[in-house]
Write a structure and sequence with these properties.
elongated, mainly alpha, Arc Repressor Mutant, subunit A, 6 helices, 54% helix, 108 residues, 0% strand
């Protein structure tokens, strides 16, 4: 006597979905709608671009950053380390001619 087994499904099918390693890494980045950029978050995004997780263009688009702003983050990180990304320190690290130009623009 042989036994046969039948499997009945009474509901939606269950799918097993594996999240790619890239997606896992993207999920660890700051949210795309981030408004408060602290040093650590800026450094994470710069690192993601430098390691190839995101392209420069993808980072700018995802976080709605200008190319100039993102390049500034990269330069400050290179020149001054993580502390260079502090918003309160940005003025100190900018070249003097930029600070003078900005001060003149505000005065007008």
């Amino acid at each position: 006597m042989s036994q046969s087994s039948t499997v009945f499904s009474s509901g939606p099918q269950v799918k097993i979905v594996r999240i790619s390693d890239r997606q896992k890494e993207l999920d660890r980045l700051p949210h795309a709608n981030t408004r408060r950029w602290v040093m650590r978050r800026k450094a994470q995004v710069v690192s993601a671009v430098r390691t190839g997780l995101l392209t420069f263009e993808e980072a700018c688009e995802r976080y709605k950053l200008s190319e100039e702003e993102f390049r500034t983050w990269m330069n400050l990180l290179d020149q001054h380390g993580l502390r260079g990304l502090r918003a309160t320190r940005m003025q100190e690290y900018r070249p003097a001619d930029e600070r003078v130009r900005d001060a003149e623009a505000v005065a007008e």
